[in-house]
UniProtKB/TrEMBL annotation:
CDD domains: EAL, GGDEF, PAS. It comes from Pseudomonas lini. It is found in: Cell inner membrane. The lineage of its organism: Bacteria, Pseudomonadati, Pseudomonadota, Gammaproteobacteria, Pseudomonadales. GO terms for molecular function: catalytic activity. Its main location: membrane. Residues 459-592 form the GGDEF domain. Its cofactor is Mg(2+). GO terms for cellular component: plasma membrane. The chain crosses the membrane at residues 21-44. This is EAL domain-containing protein. It comes from the Bacteria. InterPro entries: Biofilm_reg_signaling, CHASE4, EAL_dom, EAL_sf, GGDEF_dom, Nucleotide_cyclase, PAC, PAS.
């Protein structure tokens, strides 16, 4: 609590403000609830109205459909020559009733309760519930027969039936009637002379139930018109005094019933909680208001009510102090002992400057300044508490005046030790790497800014940018905990190799930066780098694994590359890039020409992106021969870039860049498609070999890419071979194995490319589903120069054969090499001596010549 702030605040206005605020909140709450309820009721009413109109509609529809069906049915009887012949004059009872042509089946099967044949004079034939009866139709029906006959006979088309609602034996029924007319080519009959056939369909409960079920209505029933409740879905059966009604679902009603009780409960709880909250707030505000008021009073009449002031002071959470004009402590509130551990007696009478210390401005100066300005002010001070612990507090003070003279000062001291510590912690986190605790990029930038602030006058700095080799495979294969362990160990070693004045920072991932002081000569820096790399090369033990990592270093010197931090970092980064391309595990100093290389690389990258859009790529093809050097067994597709300025570029000039930028993914897909489609134009079932980059395995769904290419081009999978270097297994051992097995399942062949250049090839060969190996051209090149490479080649050939693999020697440039390979019984050969890579047009004669010499046959061993 800040006493000085309190004493100047306006009192007593809090209560009405708080009350008004709560009134508004309460009002808002009630209005909100009312709006919600109104919305709910309106939704419910709408639902019910929809239900009413829907039910009425379907009741109507049910009746109409029943009438239509009946009309169609009666028409099939009335518009019938045989019926005309047997019913129109004298009714042939034998035909009609005994032979059941218009007889009791109309009741037993079709459920017509009454069937009548009448003419203008009388009822000629009557069946009631399947039994023939004598008598007039009017004895059963409420309808006037004369008007019915009149209506039937005056229909525009005589064959058109009419319908009515009627009472049959006093109960509502549907009546359909039609003139009995012949349906052959006789001359038209006189309408007035026709008899009329009447079918009566009494709406009994059984029929109404079926109707309800058919139309999804509830409990269709008949109700006398005067018994209908308003709002009931009723369809009047005009002329009968009855209506057809059904029960409503009343979804709105159901909604209300299901929602209102829980909603009511929730509202009640909410209201109770709000009421409780209001009471609490009122009470506390009353409390606060009360204390504010009393504090204000005590301030206004300080001299008069010293005691009251003390009471408030004791209750405050910060400690309150008073000093005289000599800055000697005259009063300390009870909180002082609690916070500092000292008793107030220890400090009363002592100068406050001895207790509190401020490192930016002496306390006494600050107080005197307050005196002049007559203002309230804050100062951050520190002190040691009774246990000797450093604590921080924010001190506020205000002069005590009487009749214009300053008698001393009074104020509060708020303990902010935790706040300061938390701030420092946040500060630390924002400047340090969470894993290793080393300074991060932000801290590095600040550090360099400070160290280089004096430009030329600054001490010489050496900036080393370090990137770990082989870190990603460890992280990928053994998981992040292993990666973290490696980074921690590296951090320790870097710290060990440097002095306290040097800075070791982690930029993220496996990139570190060292800033070294006072190393001037290259010789000195070289020695340091040697020692550093040596230390980093030492194996790291992690969970029974012995891990080996290396590092590459790029170096920038402030004396040469200037005093701008970003520039130094950029130069070291470029030098690091150079160090990596020089072959890892080395260091490299920045040199101006590297800038050009980077520039060149950037240009190439942008060209490459453009090239993919502009389709600037072509494939060249190099045949692979049976070791006799005549019969082609497969053709390797090799990518070329027709660069608009630099001409035809070989893959070495752009594949590495494509791999670094993800462009390898679209490029790889294009190569697969192009190679497969071209292979389809070749004579015979010649195989095509496509190179896959290890990066494709990591960045693209290779299985899907290959499948897609096969499906789109319709090339049989058995004609596609994929060449993969063992680097693919370095990136992700298990993932690569799974992918390769899946590729084999597509039916393609797999060849291990550049065999002998990677690590532990033998182990991989056993585990992975390769069909063949290609001995790297370096071994073939040095076969004939007397080195022991011939023995190596021989050993590889034997090993491959023992494993049932097809062995190819690539890079065969001379007859001598070919002869060696023939005598060593290598299976297949490829190289400039036999054929250079050529475009697809030049390839065709080669394929043809090979076919002419040898009829096609399965050549793989
Ligand atoms: P690679 O798979 O080892 O391909 C063989 C390389 O050796 C080809 O170089 C070929 O022209 C060259 N070569 C063939 N016979 C001889 C010879 O007798 N002597 C010598 N000195 N070289 C010979 P190219 O076409 O420049 O390809 C270089 C590398 O680029 C390939 O090495 C392959 O790893 C990669 N590459 C080529 N095309 C593609 C592709 O479509 N996708 C991917 N991912 N990589 C490709
Ligand atoms: Ca290859
Ligand atoms: Ca190769």
């Amino acid at each position: 609590m800040d006493l000085t702030a309190i004493t100047t605040a306006a009192p007593a206005r809090h209560t009405p403000i708080t009350r008004n605020l709560m009134l508004v909140i309460g009002l808002l709450f009630v209005v909100g609830v009312l709006i919600a309820l109104m919305a709910l009721f309106s939704i419910a009413a709408r639902l019910d109205a929809q239900d009413l109109s829907k039910t009425t509609f379907y009741t109507q529809r049910a009746l109409e459909n029943r009438i239509t069906a009946s009309k169609n049915y009666i028409a099939s009887y009335a518009n019938w020559t045989t019926a005309y012949d047997h019913l129109n004059d004298k009714v042939d009872v034998q035909w009609a009733y005994v032979d059941q042509n218009v007889g009791k089946t109309l009741f037993t099967i079709d459920h017509y309760d009454g069937v009548f044949v009448i003419d203008r004079q009388r009822t000629k034939y009557a069946i009631v519930r399947g039994l023939q009866v004598q008598g007039e139709a009017t004895a059963y029906l409420s309808t006037s027969m004369a008007s019915l006959i009149e209506e039937v006979q005056s229909q525009e088309s005589l064959i058109e039936p009419v319908s009515r609602y009627t009472l049959f034996e006093g109960k509502p029924a549907l009546l359909t009637a039609a003139a009995i007319v012949p349906n052959d080519e006789r001359p038209a009959v006189d309408p007035k002379s026709t008899s009329v056939l009447i079918y009566v369909d009494q709406l009994n409960p059984e029929k109404l139930n079926t109707l309800s079920a058919d139309y999804g209505l509830n409990d269709l029933s008949l109700t006398a018109d005067d018994g209908i409740v308003p709002g009931q879905p009723a369809v009047a059966l005009t002329g009968t005094g009855y209506s057809l009604v059904s029960r409503l679902e009343r979804p709105g009603h159901q909604l209300l019933w299901s929602l209102l009780p829980p909603l009511g409960g929730a509202l009640l709880i909410l209201a109770l909680l709000t009421a409780y909250f209001f009471r609490y707030v009122l009470r506390t505000s009353g409390h606060v208001d009360a204390s504010y008021t009393s504090l204000d009073l005590s301030n206004q009449a300080l001299e008069a009510s010293e005691e009251r002031f003390r009471a408030v002071a004791e209750a405050a959470s910060d400690w309150i102090w008073e000093i005289d004009d000599q800055h000697c402590i005259t009063y300390l509130s009870g909180r002082f002992s609690t916070v500092t551990g000292f008793s107030d007696q220890q400090w009363l009478g002592q100068n406050i400057g001895q207790l509190l210390n401020c490192d930016t401005t002496p306390l006494s100066l600050w107080l005197n300044k307050l005196d002049e300005e007559q203002a309230v002010s804050h100062l951050r001070c520190s002190y040691r508490d009774q246990s000797g612990q450093q604590r921080v507090c924010r001190v506020s003070a205000r002069p005590i005046q009487r009749k214009g003279a300053v008698l001393g000062f009074r104020g509060t001291a708020s303990d902010i030790t935790d706040e300061v510590a938390a701030h420092a912690q946040i500060q630390h986190l924002s400047l340090h790497d969470a894993l290793t605790g080393l300074p991060n990029r932000n801290k590095l930038a600040r550090y360099l800014e400070d160290a280089l602030a004096l430009k030329e006058q600054s001490a010489a700095l050496t900036l080393l940018m370090i990137d770990l080799d082989n870190f990603k495979p460890i992280n990928d294969s053994l998981g992040h905990p292993a990666g973290d362990a490696v980074l921690l160990e590296v951090a320790i070693r870097l710290r060990e190799c440097t002095r306290d004045i040097d800075l070791v920072a982690r930029l993220g991932g496996d990139e570190f930066v060292l800033v070294l002081h006072g190393m001037d000569s290259h010789a000195e820096i070289d020695r340091f780098c040697e020692r550093l790399l040596d230390s980093l090369h030492q194996p790291i033990n992690y969970d029974h694994h012995t891990l080996h990592i290396g590092a590459s270093i790029g170096i920038a010197l402030s004396r040469r590359q200037g005093h701008l931090p970003e520039e130094l970092i950029r130069c070291a980064d470029i030098a690091l890039y150079q160090a990596k391309s020089n072959g890892k595990k080395t260091w490299c100093y920045f040199a101006a020409h590297m800038n050009d290389q980077i520039q060149h690389r950037r240009q190439l990258e942008s060209d490459l992106r453009q090239a993919i859009k502009n389709n600037e790529f072509v494939m060249h093809y190099q045949p692979r021969y049976h070791v006799d050097g005549k019969q082609i067994v497969s053709v390797e597709a090799l990518l070329r870039w027709q660069h608009p300025v630099q001409g035809l570029l070989n893959p070495d000039a752009f594949i590495p860049l494509a791999e670094q930028t993800d462009l390898i993914v679209p490029l790889g897909r294009w190569v697969l498609r192009e190679a497969c489609e071209t292979a389809l134009t070749w004579p015979g079932a010649m195989m095509v070999s496509v190179n896959l980059s290890p990066v494709q395995f990591a960045r693209s769904d290779v299985i899907e890419d290959v499948r897609e290419a096969l499906i789109q081009s319709r090339l049989p999978a058995s004609r596609l071979e994929l060449e993969i270097t063992e680097n693919v297994m370095l990136i992700d051992v298990d993932g690569a194995l799974a992918t390769m097995n899946a590729l084999k399942e597509l039916g393609v062949r797999l060849n291990m490319d550049d065999f002998g250049t990677g690590y532990s090839s033998l182990g991989y060969l056993r585990t992975y589903p390769f069909d063949g190996i290609k001995i790297d051209k370096r071994f073939i090149a040095s076969m004939s120069n007397g080195s022991n490479d011939r023995a190596v080649v021989q050993a590889i050939i034997n090993l491959g054969k023992a494993m049932g693999l097809t062995v190819t020697a690539e890079g065969v440039e001379t007859l001598e090499q070919l002869d060696f390979l023939i005598s060593d019984q290598c299976h297949e050969v490829q190289g400039f001596y036999l054929s250079r890579p050529v475009d697809k047009y030049a390839l065709l004669p080669l394929l043809k010549a090979s076919r002419d010499d040898f009829p096609p046959q399965g050549t793989h061993l």
